[in-house]
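Weekly modeling sync, notes
Attendees: S.R. (lead), two postdocs, one rotation student

Agenda item 3: backlog of single-chain predictions. S.R. asked that every request posted to the team notebook include the full sequence so nobody has to chase files. The rotation student volunteered to paste the first one in as an example of the format we agreed on. Action items at the bottom.

Example entry:
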Amino acid sequence: MRKRMNVMNALLAVICTAALTLTACGGSKEAAQTDTAQATESGETAQENVQADAAEAEESADPAEGTESAGAAGEDAASEAEAADNTQEDTSQEAEEAAAESEAAPEAQAEEGADTASETESGEAVESPAPAYYEVLSSFTAEDLDGNTVTEEIFAGSKLTMVNVWGTFCGPCIREMPYLGTIAESYDPSEFQIVGLVSDVIGWDGQVDADVASTARDIISQTGADYLHVAPTGELMNLLYELQYVPTTVFVDSEGNAVSEEYVGSYSEDDWKAIIEEMLAR
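Predicted structure, as returned to the notebook:
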């Protein structure tokens, strides 16, 4: 009876180790590999315990019961040892599967993130109305990169304004700026204009970072995107807190009210032209 209890305890230890391994599937590859090693070690310990119990049973068998009784005990022990070995193999397999899932998880997350990341080139529009946090564009006070005060009045002179949020660190933002500059120049400002919001120009103290502002001015000069660019101080900081990716774009009317969905990612020149024409035709 004691022998069987030892065997059962060993098997339960192996099973518990397997369960713990499976609950760690979302962790790192290294953690999963550690769990695999622990599961294997537990399985080997269980097998050693079973084999030791089998040997003990064979040695302690009562001679009066004869060779047949000892042989039966040995067969039982061998059977239980085989079961423990099978359990060890199952546990190792489950742990390896957990490690494989853990290794694949970051790749899946990376693929998912690539669809909506700030530096995506796909430029698919979010199929929903502009979120409520764009309401701040209808009433705000901020400043441009030269320190001049700007308000929602910057939208008043144009039927449609493209508000493009970008960052000096963002490759796709910078790559689309040359043709944004070209597009801006091709329209009558009373019909259409572009305003840039530089997302990373504000420091932790809420003030314009002079070094980043200088970098932004250099980028603007080099790309020919010489339309108005705003440092989102004041109320516009609340908008930045809500945005997850750059470039992000929205269109507003002459009062700063959002009239389009939110566009995440960079677009080709032809795509932007088509979107702008469609917006003006409404």
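Discussion: group reviewed the output briefly. Residues 1-47, 60-74, 98-122 have pLDDT under 50 and may be disordered.
Action items: rotation student to repeat for the remaining queue; S.R. to check formatting next week.
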